[in-house]
Design a protein that fits this description.
Blueprint: E1 30-31, E2 78-84, E3 88-92, E4 100-102, E5 106-107, E6 110-111, H1 117-121, E7 131-132, E8 141-145, E9 151-155, E10 158-159, E11 181-184, E12 190-191, E13 199-204, E14 208-213, E15 220-222, E16 226-227, E17 230-231, H2 238-241, E18 268-271, E19 277-281, E20 284-285, E21 307-309
Parallel strand pairs: 2-7
Antiparallel strand pairs: 1-18, 2-3, 4-11, 5-6, 8-9, 9-10, 11-12, 13-14, 15-21, 16-17, 18-19, 19-20
């Protein structure tokens, strides 16, 4: 995992384009603060196969054969606090394995919503034989009864899990998976990367400078969408695999080109025909990929020959030469 996701330069919101009524060619287009509304009707088309390739289960696609042998139901023993360069302090078990929490669980009251395939990818940590090591407040530890009757450890009320793909002590491969899984901090909160802007850039070793969202997830564009007039060919089931990037205020960006390639084509919000508001860069609708499990993944790159990571100016990255 990279230790920095940002580009060095901050583009001030004051340079956001003052889009005129024809910007991006969409109807009822919503502009960022300081920009004018845009006009002209947007057209949408449905494209068979617009969603590209299939994806996995939605729980991180961890499987027993991919996971760490013996991770399932292994006693946690004495918990410890480990320092991680990117995430700060996080909780590990006696073997040094990272413990995680799931956003779809609840802490008040404690409840686990990870069963079946999810529990294979994310083995629950048994509550038996757990003790508090240095840095762990014993009062933060508890247990919850799962749907199968077993007792699961809780930290700060949050059910605790391991990740099947963490094979070595200190691994944090589960961090940020699907935007719902996070390493546990000693107080039960999420151990997270330093806060990122709503949109920023990072240097990818293969693709160069690309746009990422607030979770560090790679941002993509669909080559069947149109820029002028702005329209989308990703609708219906396509959006399950390629979720739209929600509107991000111009002042909550870093390294993004807010001007656009031509006058009046800048950083505006696309009012999609399905009623969803979607951020665009240079009048290009932008998405993330459900097949990317963690920050740094670029599994959507080149999917179907139509999906590509986005450069700070909205251009596709790594598009093959015609």
């Amino acid at each position: 995992m990279k230790t920095s996701w940002r580009s060095a330069s901050l583009v001030a919101s004051a340079v956001a384009v003052l889009a005129l009524t024809t910007a991006c060619g969409q109807e009822n287009g919503t502009t960022q603060p300081g920009a004018q509304n845009v006009g002209a009707a947007a057209t949408a088309s449905t494209a068979p196969g617009a969603d590209g390739a299939g994806i996995g289960s939605g729980y991180g696609d961890g499987t027993a054969e991919q996971g760490a042998a013996g991770a399932e139901a292994a006693p946690a023993g004495k918990l410890a606090v480990s320092a991680n360069a990117e995430l700060g302090e996080l909780v590990t078990d006696s073997a040094g394995r990272t413990l995680y929490r799931f956003d779809e669980d609840t802490a008040k009251p404690p409840k686990s919503n990870c069963d079946g395939d999810c529990a294979t990818a994310w083995p629950p940590v048994p509550a038996d034989d757990v003790t508090a090591g240095a840095g762990i407040d014993e009062a933060m530890l508890g247990e919850v009864t799962r749907s199968d009757g077993t007792k699961q450890l809780t930290v700060g009320g949050w059910p605790a899990y391991r990740f099947a793909k963490d094979v070595n002590p200190g691994d944090t491969k589960g961090q940020g998976v699907k935007g719902t899984w996070y390493a546990l901090a000693p107080d039960g909160k999420k151990a997270q990367l330093a806060d990122l802007p709503g949109l920023s850039t990072r240097e990818d070793p293969k693709l160069g400078e690309i746009v990422v969202d607030k979770n560090g997830m790679t941002v993509y564009r669909f080559m069947k969408d149109t820029q002028w007039p702005m329209s989308t060919a990703c609708t219906g089931e396509c959006l399950e695999k390629w979720p739209v990037v929600a509107p991000v205020p111009a002042e909550d960006t870093e390294g993004i080109d807010l001007q656009g390639s031509t006058p009046n084509r800048g950083y505006v919000v696309f009012d999609r025909p399905d009623g969803i508001k979607q951020q665009s860069i240079d009048c290009v609708p932008i998405y993330t990929f459900a097949g990317d499990e963690a920050p740094g993944d670029t599994n959507g790159q080149g999917v179907g020959g139509t999906w590509y990571a986005v450069a700070p100016d909205g251009k596709p990255v790594g598009l093959p030469d015609e």
